[in-house]
Design goal:
MBL fold metallo-hydrolase; Metallo-beta-lactamase, Chain A; 13 strands; globular; binds zinc ion; alpha/beta; 5-stranded mixed beta sheet; Metallo-B-lactamas; 26% helix
């Protein structure tokens, strides 16, 4: 898959709650003669005492992310950077962020990071699922990644704007051709900062299933009902107004998306057992 970087519309972030910002950029490609985009999002949460950036964005968007951050922070500093897992779209801008914000520390499951960034070994603070940070007036809690990509993936939850951050989980294929034979969750130019309810149509179970089976291959072999039960239990104790994925539109119709996603995972699982 090859994607370019579009300019313009994603250069600006979107305020998605009090002190909560949707940042990052999109990569772009051509599919059947049509331009399509792929989100690589970051999220900033600002409390009265501290701020945290969830995922660093892609190095291709380094300038965009740094400019968006500066604007959103409005003269304050960045205190915490939380890459949900050590892959390029999620952790690739870490050295630039740590250089720009000298008091920022990296939080999360940082077990291997000292090997990649030995110069920043003293700025890594391990946080396990269940631990939290007091941002001042709101709490940021680290959650297990119920749908996970890597062993050390974590999700997060902001009690202030009631947002659950789900990394590679909950990214949907919409009814748009994707480049090559890929099934990356793409959207059209102009849809970059839309909430799911603002999109022309929600994804069908078939579209969600197609993406699920390819992107999270293990879901073919594991009945994810237990994972979805855990997500529902977590939402009961941590009610979410929004679900914020790294590679899809921010979800504001939480209940119906959960149902679609669970149905999709079941379909993939049952299909693989025929
Ligand atoms: Zn990812
Ligand atoms: Zn876009």
């Amino acid at each position: 898959m090859s994607f370019n970087i579009p300019g313009g519309e994603t250069a600006t972030g979107r305020v998605i709650g009090e002190g909560a910002y949707w940042l990052g950029g999109c990569l772009s490609a051509s599919a059947e003669g049509q331009e399509v985009h792929y989100h690589v999002s970051s999220y900033l949460v600002i409390g009265s005492k501290a701020s945290i950036l969830v995922d660093t964005g892609d190095p291709a968007h380094r300038g965009t992310v740094l400019a968006q951050l500066e604007r959103a922070l409005g003269g304050r500093t960045l205190d915490y950077v939380f890459p949900t897992h050590p892959e390029i779209p999620h952790a690739g801008n870490l050295p630039f962020l740590l250089a720009r914000y000298p008091s920022a520390v990296v939080v999360g499951d940082v077990r291997d990071y000292a090997l990649h960034f030995p110069e920043y070994a003293d700025r890594l603070m391990a946080k396990a699922a269940g631990e939290s940070l007091d941002l001042g007036g709101r709490e940021f809690r680290f959650l297990p990644a119920y749908i996970r990509d890597l062993e050390n993936t974590l999700w997060g939850y902001d009690s202030g704007a009631r947002i659950m951050f789900v990394s590679d989980g909950f990214s949907y294929i919409h009814d748009i051709p994707a480049p090559d034979e890929d099934d990356e969750p793409v959207h059209l130019p102009g849809q970059c900062r839309l909430l799911s309810s603002e999109m022309p149509a929600p994804p069908s179970v078939e579209q969600a299933a197609y993406g699920t089976g390819r992107a999270l291959y293990w879901t073919k072999f594991v009945d994810v009902s237990l994972a979805f039960q855990a997500i529902e239990d977590t939402l009961a104790s941590h009610p979410a107004r929004l679900i914020a994925p790294a590679h899809g539109n921010v979800i504001d119709d939480v209940d119906s998306m959960l149902k679609t996603s669970l149905a999709a995972h079941r379909k993939v699982y049952e299909g693989s057992r025929l």
